[in-house]
Amino acid sequence: MRVATVVLAAGMSSRFGGRPKQLEALGDATVLQHAVRAFAHADRVAEVWVVTSAEHETTTRELLADERVTGFVLGGETRAASTIRALDTLDPSVTHVLVHDAARPLLPRDTVERCLDALETVNVVATVVPPSDTVVVLDEAGERVVSMPDRDRVRLHQTPQGFRRDLLADAWARLAGTPPSTDDITAVLRVFPDETVAWVDGDRRTMKVTHPDDLAVVRALAATWVAEPG
Questions:
Q1: Which of left, alpha, beta for 59 (phi over 0: left; psi -120 to 50: alpha)?
Q2: How many CA atoms lie within 13 A of 43 on its CB side?
Q3: How many Å separate Cα 121 from the centre of its chain?
Q4: Distances (CA, A) of 182 to 78, 117, 158
Q5: What is the residue extent of each domain of the chain?
Q6: How far lies 117's CA from each of 16, 41, 122, 197, 220, in Å?
Q7: Highest mean pLDDT: which of 11-25, 71-85, 186-200?
Q8: pTM score of the predicted model
Q9: How far apart are the C-alpha atoms of 88 and 91, rounded to whole Å?
């Protein structure tokens, strides 16, 4: 098994106000640097690729010049397009891939190791955490409650997500021209619903920076990150 990590950092950050959230300061580094470092020191990760936008390519390359990054890929207009471009760039020897959102900077190494362990035996690995709040499902109009799932059975997706490389590539290829999937696990299960998934415990600190106030929370969590490296 030869594993590459793809760190997705080409988004437009529209819900963050349009400025690139991955380039925001987080302690003595940036959000993106923290995300990359989670994989750069993992012995079983052979390659680390960063997907960036043309607008921020130069800044991203300069920022990561001293990090253990294999190379850079220009992203597409959608998450799917960015992932496909990255998969096409990987060396043919890469058999498995971890896909991670750059906007999730606080990723304990233990989580990465659990994902790698799971990839030894299954083709799909999902990093998840249980919700803290009750979940309700509304109808299409958003007016009536359709169901209230048992919270003990509900899980929230995080990243990294892990896959056998050819399976992920095949899933995205078959979904071409269909409504977009929000993440790679969803895409794979739309095409291969019977595929066995390893549900790996994530970490609540690995929250995603989506809105400006999320960054304030992550910065508060980062204050103790050195003492608790995972």
A1: alpha
A2: 2
A3: 21
A4: 10, 25, 12
A5: 3-222
A6: 34, 16, 9, 13, 30
A7: 186-200
A8: 0.91
A9: 8
Burial of 104 (0-12, 13-18, 19+ CB in 10 A): buried
For helices 165-174 and 79-89, angle between their N-to-C axes, nearest 10 degrees = 140
**Model confidence over 147-188: pLDDT tens digits?**
888 888 889 999 999 999 999 999 999 998 888 888 999 999
- Burial (CB < 10 A; 0-12, 13-18, 19+), residue 41, is exposed
The CATH number assigned to the domain with range 3-222 reads: 3.90.550.10
Rounded CA-CA distance 22/190 in Å is 29
> What DSSP element (H or E) covers 73?
strand 71-74
pLDDT in tens, 91-142: 999 999 999 999 999 999 999 999 999 999 999 999 999 988 888 889 888 8
CA 139 – CA 141 distance, rounded (Å): 5
User: What gap in Å lies between CA 101 and CA 72, rounded to an integer?
Assistant: 15
The amino acid present at 82, given as its one-letter code, is S
Tell me the C-alpha distance between 184 and 171, whole Å.
Answer: 9
Measured N-to-C along each axis, helices 165-174 and 184-191 cross at an angle, to the nearest 10 degrees, of 70
